[in-house]
Amino acid sequence: MAEISVVGLERTYPGASRPAIKNLSFEVARGEFFGLLGPNGAGKTTTISILCGLLRPTAGHVEVRGERWDGQSRTMPRGMGLVPQDIALYPTLTVRENLDYFGRMSGLWGGDLRRRVDRCLHIGALESHASRRVVQCSGGVKRRANLAAGLLSEPPILVLDEPTVGVDAQSRNVLIENLKAINQSGTTIVYTTHYMEEAEALCTRIAILDAGGVIAQGEPAELIARQKDCSSLVQLFLALTGKELRE
Q1: Rounded to an integer, what distance in angstroms lies between the CA atom of residue 149 and that of residue 101?
Q2: pLDDT tens digit string along 62-104?
Q3: Of all helices (H) and strands (E), which one includes residue 6?
Q4: What pLDDT score was predicted for residue 49?
């Protein structure tokens, strides 16, 4: 059984002339590091929002660990953790206070909460920043704290929306190494990024979206080998989606 199954998913926003995603289908196996790639406007954020129960589909459904969700039921299947592209932290609280707060929101208390917060501070190399207010932190520290908050509940499925955007090379390296370790420990990861080198190095399989649909999916190396005159995921991506600028 797939960890995630997306079946015929569609979403049309009110007033839009065309659907943001249409007849979208793919599967993510348990323990996979799955890349959801595409240019701006391809439908990645809409897909992630539906996966995480933040947006109802117009048609189709999602199955997460065998539980079906089509937007009609009140609750999304459990087991999903989201690290959004935007920094989802309280700027006037310290890094530790943010993790304490989100841990409590996840139902953690007492010694278990302290252990989880300490572990996530360590994973994000945040120990020396724990007492700093988020507003005073660098972009790289905020990104690492954003990831740490998403890990507090130890979700079996972790969805990451461009977690390394706009950070320095050192912070990116820490984030990437931590994501590798998290995946190797058994966590299924769904990952979006505009950095094709990252996706090629991290993802066991990918789906490339454009104009709201999947135009290619499979193992990166196999997809690259199939495409004439392509030797990297960057070249494959441009060959499939074009070189024109996207707004």
Answers
A1: 9
A2: 999 988 888 876 666 678 899 998 999 999 999 999 999 999 9
A3: strand 4-11
A4: 92
Residue extents of the structural domains in the chain: 1-78+188-247
pLDDT tens for each residue of 166-207: 888 998 898 899 999 999 999 999 999 999 999 999 999 999
Q: Is the dihedral of CA 30, 166, 102, 99 positive or negative?
A: positive
Distance CA 144, CA 15 (A): 37
The span from the CA of 144 to the CA of 130, in Å, is 11
Q: What single-letter amino acid sits at 110? A: G
Tell the CATH topology of 1-78+188-247: Rossmann fold (3.40.50)
Structure-block tokens of residue 54: 């933040």
Cα–Cα dist 7/9, whole Å: 5
Helices (DSSP H) in 127-219: which residue ranges? 139-151, 169-184, 196-202
Among 99, 81, 79, 80, which Cα is nearest to 149's? Answer: 99
126 is written with which tokens?
A: 């945040």
Rounded to the nearest angstrom, the gap between the alpha carbon of residue 193 and the centroid of all alpha carbons in its chain is: 8
What letter represents residue 165's amino acid? V
Residue 180, both tokens: 């590798």
How far apart, in whole angstroms, are the C-alpha atoms of residue 74 and residue 116? 29
